Amino acid sequence: MAMASINATASNNVRAGGLSEQWRYRLISLVIIVVLLAAWEFAPRAGLVSAIILPPLSKVAHALLTLVQQDFFMRHFTVTLREILIGFVLGTLIGFGIGTALAIWPAVKRVSYPFVVGFQAIPKIVFAPLFIAWFGFGETSKVVMAVVIAFFPVLINTLVGLESVPEDARRLMRSIRATQLQTFYKVSLPHALPVIFAGVKAALTFAVIGAIVGEFVGASEGLGYLVDLYNHQLRIDRVFAVITILAAIGAGGYFLLEWLDAKLIFWRNEEGR
Amino acid sequence: MHSMTPEANPGPPGFASPPKPIVEARGLAKTFSISGSEVTALEGVDLSIRRGEFISFVGPSGCGKSTFLNMVAGLLSPTGGEALVNGVAVREPSRQVGFMFQTPVLLPWRTVEQNVLMPAEVFGRKDKAVRDKARSVIEAVGLGGFVGAYPRQLSGGMQQRVALARILTYEPEVLLMDEPFGALDEFTREAMNLELMRITRAAGITVLFVTHNITEAVFMSDRVVVMTPRPGKVSGMVDIALPRPREIGLMQKQAFADLIFEVRGILGHGHG
Fold it and tell me: Where exactly are the transmembrane stretches of this chain (chain A) (predicted)?
């Protein structure tokens, strides 16, 4: 830590009068983004790529603005958002529950861990048609798909987090005759929380994938359905518009979780205070 | 802090022992089974420890000193003999006994005060008396200004002070310490040695102190138990009849050097 800050100061001094390191990197990122967006705009216009395959950026922006003003859009948007949220919450709870059970009862872990790993080895997207057959064309099949993809990172991270509690901490709790429950919520759970939260963030991304894949395979509404529909209609500008909205949902949720993470696990960055 | 009972302040060691020892080991032994073969971690130990005594266990790794301590704590069950605290055989951990580890094991999401109060919460006590007690103990270990600080803001020595305060708050009669200052630098260690002697003397606590540092053991103790490995066993016992209170200057005295020499003699040649 100390070394890093000394190095940073030294390199700043070398470029006296220049931008700080952080800002230089931000500037480089910004330049790359601008160049890419400019290429997106002008490559189709200059005929380098077909405007049907890759519509210019301005057309996509226009499509996005018109799309969000349509009455039908809100319906598709809320359907997918609901699928993602329910899938994410259920997946997180199930993953946390199973992960905790595996961590607390070694016997449960020994018996069921092979099944858990075996299940994870299956590319779960193959279940999508099956879930449509089982749960119908409605939201349920998409929620199930989201849950099935999302629960695993939470499960593994809960297990790993709870098992990484230092031996001395367990012995401390034993030495004061703490019950298993007390040890769990006073020591193990808070200790595991940062790791669990990393799994929760992954679960959100996976829930989005699950919901969209479910809609691709069979649905009559939702953003994934719209992407599929517009793709068939070769309205690629609208395809990109929906992708932008999906990216916004993912990024928004992620930043919300980041914020919650920082609030909840406040001790991680305690050094700076 | 604690009221001083007469037997809490033993006179110079080596004289009349009180009738009832606070900690006792009777043939206390431990063998581990490692991949089929039996390994003796500790050969039968017989030992009586007086109330208020400060006793250290020194020896190289594998001499069974930590094993001994863990059995007295009830964290490890013996394979032979028994450990007794206040005349009762140890079967499980007890609140009469506090255990301090080499790492402070503080909970980083809790402030100093919240860490110190953690055992009280486990015991179901949240009253004002216990909070006042915690405050006064934090004061006593020299962390009065850090009640609301988080562990990461504290140095290693300060973190071990918090760990000590956490134990003192629930007023155990016996304090077991497993190389608690092993990770500290020499200057911090000396400061901690002085503080530990002062605090435990004032509270009349019996201390069983495990260390591989001979100087530290001789400096603080009434008695030093010397242990050797393969198999782990007690090889000798040295009474430290140095006057109290002890100051750092004591380490330059010939009597001190003689005692160090005596301990080293029992440990045998070739040891540090």
Answer: 23-40, 47-65, 85-108, 115-137, 143-162, 206-227, 239-257
